Predict the structure.
Amino acid sequence: MFCGDETGAYVMETGWTNSRFGWGGAADPCLQIPTLLTSSNTIGLSALHSSSNTGGATPIFNNPNNTSEITNWDAWETLLSSSMSQTVCQNRPILSTDPGFSPPGQKETQTEIMFEKFDTPAYFISHTAALSAFSLGRHTAMVVDCGGGGNVATPVIDGMVLKRSLRRSVRGGDFLDMQIKEVIEKKTGKPLAVRPERQTTGKYKTPSKAYLSSLTPSQKTYRSFCLHETLTDFKKSHGVSLQFAKVDMREVSGLIPDDSVYELPDGTPVNVNEHPDLYVVPEAMFMEGPLTSSKTDAPALIDVEGNDQDQPQTDPSLLDVPLHRLAHEALSSADVDCRKELLMNLVLCGRGSCFSGVDTRLSKELTAMTPSTFRVKVSSGKGEERSNASWIGGSILTSLGSFQQLWLSKAEYDEYGSTLAVQRFP
Amino acid sequence: MSDARAILGVGVGAAPVAVDPVQAAMKSPGGAQNADKKLKPPRGMSREVFNLLQTQQNEIAAGLSSTPLNDPSLQSTTLLPTMVPSSRPKGGKVGSMSKTDKVSKWVWAPFSSTARNDGADFHHWVKAGVEYPDYPFARFNVHLDSVEYTEEEYNTYLANSEWTRSDTDLLMGLCRRLDLRWAIIHDRYTATPRRTIEQLQHRYYSVASRLTHVRLTLASAGPIDPSNPISTLGTGSSSQSFNLSYEGERRRQLEVAWKRSKEEEQEENDLRKELKLVEVQLRKLKKAGKGEEPATSMTSDPHEAANSLFHRPLPTAGLPYLQSARLENPVGVNGLSKTLIKKMELVLRELEIEERPLPTKTVVDIYDHLRKSIVTLLTLQKIASKKENLLLLKKAEITQKGDSTPFEQNPVIMNPQRRTGGVQGQGMKRKSDAGMSVQQQAQHAQMQQAAAKKLKK
């Protein structure tokens, strides 16, 4: 670490699905938990599934249209304080992240809470896209983040995000989960089984419709979290390789290995051979045409071209387009001179991109869409680094010597107040 | 690399470190000047790394690299020691430790940085006993010079109908904060009249250059006032003006190129290839013979071309002038092709003219005239046959497409009224004027008879 300085800052990232906490300078976060609180206001996977969690779970982000909007501030505070007590963080500078499309005023509130409730000596908010680019050693990159709440394509130039060129789509991990869930439920005829950790013996009790409709919101949240676990497990084992080209559904059955039978928590086998759709679930990320309808809450396709010419930009465009088109839209709205460099440094991150073949497919599709004078190069980390890319970038950032002058210190916050102080953040 | 150097104990103000084999190797008498002496790298360090350290040292000593990072005057603040241990036990590699080595002590020390203007305290892990006058990374806090103006300056010189004061101030603030990164400035510029990036650039550079110009003229006009020196003019205030229209056009073109689909690109490439082929053909035709016109050009006349070749050069004073020189057949790029010359010689033989007439002025004049006529005749014949072929091709095309209009089968040659273009028409007429060889006349007579028969049918 030649340019580094071990200051021991605390890096926290709260995402739609998972949150990561840890120390600056470390290679990975020491605490990775779902972004949920139990009914007794504790955090962590084991706490969520423990027998003492009777009431369910409380989400912190609850707006599918803007997955970075903190809807429950108390829950957010509790999440932070619990994580800091778990990791024994006291009196350290804190770095937190923001995707770039958070509603106005959110950063100010975060800063206020940090300085007043947690009494940090210094605070900084950085963009997740910029941090993901840093994790791969780049200061200028086109970052495509495939997360649970959706996919976001952000151009980063010189470590700063172009907020107006940011494009996001709803086709994230949760969207894919819904697709899988529908197919399985249609086939099995009953609600998708989840694994309640408490139940280890006895016959699995399929919940009745009456029971399901009687759940309280927090119980629903817990249930959807368990569903998410099951489906993530399915995706890991079977939500498989994207082919390099568009998949012809007639050929898919020839591609599925014979032994691909997934067993649900209640013992029901799901034979992927009977449902080729399940095999090519990640293909939904690359399919053309509006896919969302009344089934999900997300709005249908919104026309991008020129829609931000006259209207004041409060929300970046939310699109229902495939991944390569998302990146292309983001590039088309960026400055003409930067496009070549952005395409040469296309960074793929997020857990949704961990399906095999996403990077090759994205590269191929983008090459077909852009003129031949532009060379497309997709870079991404390996394994867990890809899902934790933004946290790792934060860790790198806080350990840089030249970053230490950028912190917003308590003295500056006291002097300027939160509104002016927030302008310090890029 | 310079922090490695600092650890190794070379350079000005190096941190005192425990005896280090690398340090010992580098600290030969007259450290930096030892470029000529062959210093051996210490064991465990590769030769290339050691050479790099040497080169950097020499550069700094010679004052070659003068960036802030390598500025000798700033070398007093060294970089922090790295996390990697640098001591070396006997017989081992650089960086490994043995049991008997002394463990260096690290402390959680507070520090402040001059790059921050609030004097806040931070803490970090550093080696005990090392003193730093200032935070070593503070020197990376480099910004571009900012352009600033006062109220009066703005009102007098910089007021603009399209730009309000607040918009201009916003732009200047953004430029200062973001160090003239235009893509980001354009992104963060939120004033209501939405401006393109080149408009922002134009405004900034015109303000900067106008300010410079004004301030310099004012300063040079009055007496030099030492108490009020010209403050830094700010980056971007050069004398070159920002070309708004050019930039706009350039960006538009780049956008067009960006939006072009792959099919259009393919089409353009195909057209380019075709163009190349056509150009090659044109060049070939031009080379093939002077006086022969390519199918597309209507301006050159075979007569004139032939004229220019056999033109009598004027005798120049002082140089010997021989008529026999004019007997030569002009060959080469500007002259006739070999085939044409051979054909010409054939015709001359047919007309039973001696190989080399006596080179007097009148004889050679007549000879020239004759050669001219022959060349013209041959050229015209060639053109005529080509046109005929073209006509046949077109006819075949049309009959293929199903046009039922019957065509006369007469060759073009015999039909001077045909609409084939001015020169061609003239050429045809001249052709009938010029003498044809006996064989050719017979051929044409036969064709005429055949055509007449067809018409009767």
Observations:
- The CA atoms of residues 256 and 283 of chain B lie 33 Å apart.
- Chain B touches chain A at residues 1, 3-4, 79-80, 82-84, 113, 115-116, 118-125, 135-138, 140-141, 178, 181-184, 186-188, 194, 197, 251, 254-255, 257-258, 260, 262, 265 (CB under 8 Å).
- The beta strands of chain B are 106-111, 122-127.
- The first strand of chain B starts at residue 106 and ends at 111.
